[in-house]
Amino acid sequence: GNIGLTKIALINEENQTLQIPLESFNELLKNRDFLLQYNRRDSHESANKILKAASDIELMEANRRYQVIAPCLQGEPVKNINFPRRSIYYWLKAWRDAELKYGIGYIGLLPNYKKRGNRSNKLTTAVLQLIEEFISKDYESLKQKGKFASYSALCGEHPIFAEIAIHECSMGRIQQ
After folding, report:
1. What is the pTM of this model?
2. How far is CA 131 from CA 122, 137, 138, 152, 167, in A?
């Protein structure tokens, strides 16, 4: 079989190349049953940490990306018409960058979904303080109201909250 399409090449501690089927490699990743070795200790620890923290979905996506770029890593020209060339070149660069940084190109193919999106708070500190105060006095009282009743009371006292979606203010805090 062609390395990269059906098999993957690994180098053992004696510096010998071993070929294992991609299914076996995927199983090792899925079960987190591996230990990466690299000359630089900090890179080795970082790479292991990144791989062990990757979700199954991220590992599946990295495997899919690897299958797309594997022929290119073997020196074949980019010719996969099912993916944009820009994506393929991006994945190849990510592979090379990770190879330089960690000694393991595969790390560069992990999508890192956890870091996506704008997670910054969109409400001002004053509004957050008001919500916090209202929750502690009205919602988290001895006679606990329902979420909607508490939110309605907040809107009654401060009409500006009627314009803010319920999930944007008190709902997120109440569920904590």
Report:
1. 0.48
2. 14, 10, 10, 12, 12
